[in-house]
Amino acid sequence: MRNVVIIGSGPAGYTAAIYAARANLNPLLIEGLQIGGQLSITTDVENFPGFPEGIMGPALMDAMKKQAGRFGTDFLPGFVAKADLSQRPFHLYTDDEEIQAKSVIICSGASARLIGLESEKRLIGYGVSTCATCDGYFFRGKEIIVIGGGDSAMEEATFLTKFANKVTVIHRRDKLRASKIMQDKAFRNPKIDFVWDTVVEDIYDVEAKNVQGVKLRNLKNDEVTDFKSDGVFVAIGHEPNTGIFQGQIEMDANGYILTHDGTKTNIPGVFAAGDVQDHVYRQAISAAGSGCMAAMDAERFLEHSEH
Ligand code: NAP
User: Fold this and answer.
1) Going by C-beta distance under 8 Å and a sequence separation of 6 or more, which residues neighbour residue 191?
2) What value does the mean pLDDT take over residues 127-142?
């Protein structure tokens, strides 16, 4: 029986572990499929305070893990395949273990949707990005494309014009899904161009390990063209990793866990932190902050439930 089980190993999970471990709760952290979370697939991180020269995403996550381990966090590789949160103690199941927990902190994050190309996967962190706030700065004076037609794509395209000389939005239809106000802002921006009814079929150059251009297909006339680009921002939405909690925890229409009074969910003893409950800020530092809050909330919950 564990006092606290933390699900997920991004900034929220590791920070929750640091705080819970330092409160002598000897937390167990279940690492999930992508150890280190979304930052483990980025390169330079320049906006995490404390690193004036920047730090590589995997190095930052490694340091967080070591810090959590130093105070007595136990790490369990693997992912939670099933959860029963209907009664206390809560039951979590990985492929080969059943874990009982007095409290649970869900930090399972969100995954950026990708278009699904092999070249996209290989060039993530090398010119392909899913986060303009994180990586826009590296594209000063460059020409880049943004894929998508929703609010995220408009927001990213507009933000990226602070750095890039030209941003081309590639959208698969001839109408945007984005809200009117976001569309108007993007249409008014002289640095943003649109290519309609078009999908990206390949990204060059995997061998060179940087982005040099993309192969486009016009869905109306099937015409295939090469398009020069220094970077590709994929902005086709995110999906919170909450499938196993469906029907057990209150979520919004998009599957993000609803929290109140800090990091509490509708289930006493179950807390949520980081991108799994935040589709607005989605930053490593805001996730870390909410991980800290969740550990303190769990500590208080355990204190009260034991007296
Ligand atoms: P979204 O609204 O689901 O839009 C995703 C866009 O990506 C759509 O235009 C979609 O095309 C396109 N897309 C999806 N899969 C694709 C694929 N495989 N290949 C090419 N294109 C693909 O996602 P979002 O923009 O991330 O927004 C999510 C939610 O957050 C929305 O409710 C949004 O309003 C909100 N949000 C708000 C703000 C803001 O207000 N500041 C900012 C960001 C997000 P189709 O249009 O053809 O389906």
Assistant:
1) 161, 164, 165, 166, 167
2) 92
In single-letter form, the type of residue at position 223 comes to E
Tens-place pLDDT, residues 48-77: 999 999 998 899 999 999 999 999 999 999
Q: Which of 182, 204, 234 is the last residue of a domain?
A: 234
Q: Tell me if 115 CB under 6 Å of ligand 1.
A: yes
Are residues 246 and 212 part of one domain? no
Taking the centre of ligand 1 as the mean of its atom positions, its distance from the CA of residue 157, in whole angstroms, is 13
- 182: domain CATH number is 3.50.50.60
- Are residue 161 and residue 250 in the same domain, yes or no? no
Q: Which residues are catalytic?
A: 131, 134-135
pLDDT for 128 beyond 80? yes
Question: d(Cα 3, Cα 198) in Å, to the nearest integer?
Answer: 52
Domain boundary (196, 213, 234) is at 234
Residue 157 has pLDDT above 80, yes or no: yes
pTM attached to this predicted model: 0.78
SS3 label, residue 131: coil
* Closest to 154 in 3D by CA, of 139, 167, 165: 167
Distance CA 302, CA 217 (A): 56
Question: Is the domain of 155 the same as that of 179?
Answer: yes
Count of domains for the chain: 2
Same structural domain for residues 203 and 301?
no
Look up the domain containing 261 and give its range. 2-112+238-306
Mean pLDDT of 162-168: 97
Distance 169 CA to ligand 1 centre (A): 13
Comparing CA positions, the residue from 221, 223, 224, 222 lying closest to residue 213 is 224
| Residue that is written with structure tokens 């196993």 in the block | 244
